[in-house]
Amino acid sequence: MNVVRITSASNPAIKLIKSLHDKKGRQKEKSVLLEGIRLVADAANSGALIRYFVVSESYFEKSREIISKYHSEKVIVLTDELFGKVSETEAPQGLIAVARIPCYNEDEILSRLKRLIVLERIQDPGNAGTIIRTADAFGFDAVILSGDSVDPFNSKVVRSTMGSLFHIPVVVSEDIYSTINKIKDKSIPVIAAHPRDGRSCWNVDLSSDVAIVIGNEGNGLTNKMLELSDEVAMIPMTGLAESLNASSAASVLIYESMRQKLMKQEHGPR
């Protein structure tokens, strides 16, 4: 293991690490920061390709064995003060992994995957991360985000997924409507989530190949997306709240899809 110690804030490595706080820097380096003991462990155990570690001096002195069990050729050791400057958390634990961003070809993904979540203009990192994690938990094949959605490798999204970013393909589509048409060309039903003007989700067939589309937190789905969709599904609610937030609605529909699929396997088509 190659250990490099850095004590100067002007070192080029510090500038590179800090550049990964921004989308532009992540895209340029094709890398993402994973910060914290739990997140690093989850990502490494999920197959993340770790380029190198960045650790505080105090963490390195007491935790060399933890770092050595992960596959990485390089460890950058920073003074505790310098580590605090590159950390994105208020109470840093002293451990950051710089990992390769998983790269997927959209056409290749669409050619082989059949159960998809599509996110149109999702802006909240917590919502995006929760949806990715839920899709992973309930057996969906991929998550596709429109290009104007939050960056899935935003640090808050990454933390919310708890490693799922390295389990399930997450693809950013720069032309989401073209992507929807490709999905429809594969005879995969496109189901739009909408709080009104749709059939109850348990009456919509979500049991097999399906693309469930979730819209923006404040404005929902665009009219164009609704026009492209094959059907609109709503979640019946008996309480006083007008609607669920994006991640809650997605979680209900994802679970309902899994429930229908398992019931179909157990009892046959309904």
- Mind telling me the C-alpha Rg? 21 Å
CATH architecture of the largest domain: 3-Layer(aba) Sandwich
Top-tier CATH class of the largest domain: Alpha Beta
The CATH topology of the largest domain comes to Alpha/beta knot
What is the ordering of alpha helices and beta strands? Answer: EHHEHEHEHEHEHEHEHEEEHEH
Strand residues, percent: 15-25%
Output the number of helix runs.
11
Structural class: alpha/beta
Q: Which descriptor suits the 3D outline?
A: elongated
The N- to C-terminal Cα distance equals 58 Å
Any idea what the CATH superfamily of the largest domain is called? SPOUT methyltransferase, trefoil knot domain
Low-confidence runs (pLDDT<50, min 5 residues)? Answer: none
- Which strands sit side by side, in order, in the main sheet? 8-7-6-11-9-12-10
Portion of residues in helices? Answer: 40-55%
Number of domains: 2
User: What average pLDDT do the residues reach?
Assistant: 92
Tell me how many strands there are.
Answer: 12
Q: Main beta sheet, described?
A: 7 strands, parallel
Can you walk me through this structure?
The chain is α/β, with parallel strands linked by helices and 270 residues long. It folds into two domains: 2-100, 60s Ribosomal Protein L30, Chain: A (2-Layer Sandwich); 106-267, Alpha/beta knot (3-Layer(aba) Sandwich), CATH 3.40.1280.10. The chain is built from eleven helices and twelve strands. The strands form two sheets. A seven-stranded parallel beta sheet has the order 8-7-6-11-9-12-10, sandwiched between helices. Helix 4 (57-68) links the parallel strand 3 (50-56) and strand 4. Helix 7 packs parallel to helix 8 and helix 7 packs parallel to helix 11. It is elongated and about 60 Å long. The mean pLDDT is 92.
